[in-house]
Write a structure and sequence with these properties.
With 257 residues, the protein is of the alpha/beta class. It has a single domain, classed as 3-Layer(aba) Sandwich (Undecaprenyl pyrophosphate synthetase). It is 49% helix and 13% strand. It has ten helices and six strands; from the N terminus they run H-E-H-H-H-E-H-E-H-E-H-H-H-E-E-H. The chain has helices at 2-22, 39-45, 50-59, 61-70, 90-110, 126-138, 155-173, 177-183, 186-190, 238-249, and strands at 31-35, 75-82, 114-118, 146-153, 203-206, 225-228. It has a six-stranded parallel sheet with strand order 3-4-2-1-5-6, with helices on both faces. Strand 3 (114-118), helix 6 and strand 4 form a beta-alpha-beta unit. Helix 5 packs parallel to helix 6. The radius of gyration is 20 Å and the shape is globular. The protein starts with a helix and ends in an 8-residue tail after the last helix. The relative contact order is 0.17.
């Protein structure tokens, strides 16, 4: 019965995807943030170990970027590892860091996208941080979609780092704290965020059925639209992506109002 249903899906989904694409409104997002959630629960559901779930999740990154590319999205931010995740047991964390590094290496090797690591890279092992930075350097001149790879990322940490960077910059200029307090505004802080110079995300997608932000792009997502998908990340399909994009396009954005 299960195999029969899978066969029907393989036949029907391409036609359904094509119909969704044909009916897609014009107002598509320029920046999409994706919280790639559910790898561990997916692994448990299929009776495999956690590392297998992370590998399955990593394998689904390239298809997602291809789908984004197909409809003209300009920036994608992928949350691969939070600062909280760094507290996981070494037996899980070390393989996960290697899986992430391998995935980023593979994306860089293709030369299709401009990779931009975002996060507290100083919290990562030196070897991991070096590979992420090397991927950014190797793709710096690529004229393609920007892909922010959020590793060791936390929204509170990002804002803290931005404020710290702002203070250090003005200390170097000799600005007093009193003077800085009078001139600092939103734009000053935005110039020191990990995503400086990029548009804020129009749409944030979270897989696995969880309906919370969890610290993802806290500053940047103030006016974003959100879409929560029940599928675990390794099971996230093109049709799920297109449904999220269509749901966004059909909303009347109020930009936080």
């Amino acid at each position: 019965m299960v195999d029969w249903k899978r066969g029907v899906r393989r036949v029907l989904y391409p036609a359904y995807e094509a119909r969704v694409l044909r009916r897609m409104p014009d107002n598509l997002p320029k920046h999409v943030g994706v919280m790639l959630d559910g790898n561990r629960r997916w692994a448990k559901a299929v009776g495999r170990d956690t590392a297998h779930g992370h590998r399955a999740g990593a394998a689904n990154i390239e298809p997602l970027l291809t789908w984004c590319e197909e409809i003209g999205i300009e920036v994608v931010t992928l949350w691969l590892l939070s600062t909280d995740n760094l507290n996981r047991p070494p037996a899980e964390l070390e393989p996960l860091l290697e899986i992430i590094a391998e995935a980023v290496d593979s994306l860089a090797d293709q030369g299709r996208w401009r990779l931009n690591p975002v996060g507290a890279l100083d919290l990562l092992p030196d070897a991991t941080a070096k590979r992420l930075k090397s991927a950014a350097e190797a793709t710096a001149d690529v004229d393609g979609m920007i892909v922010n790879v959020a590793v060791a990322y936390g929204g509170r940490r990002e804002i803290t780092d931005a404020v710290r960077s702002l203070l250090m910059e003005h200390a170097g200029k000799g600005t007093s704290l009193e003077d800085l307090a009078h001139i600092v505004d939103l734009e000053h802080i935005e110039e020191h965020l990990y995503t400086k110079g990029q548009p804020d995300p129009d749409l944030v997608i979270r897989t696995s059925g969880e309906q919370r932000l969890g610290g993802f792009l806290l500053w940047q997502s103030a006016k974003s639209e959100f879409y929560f998908c029940e599928a675990y990340w390794p099971d996230f399909r093109r049709v799920d992506f297109l449904r999220a994009i269509r749901a966004y396009a059909l909303r009347e954005r109020r930009f936080g109002a």
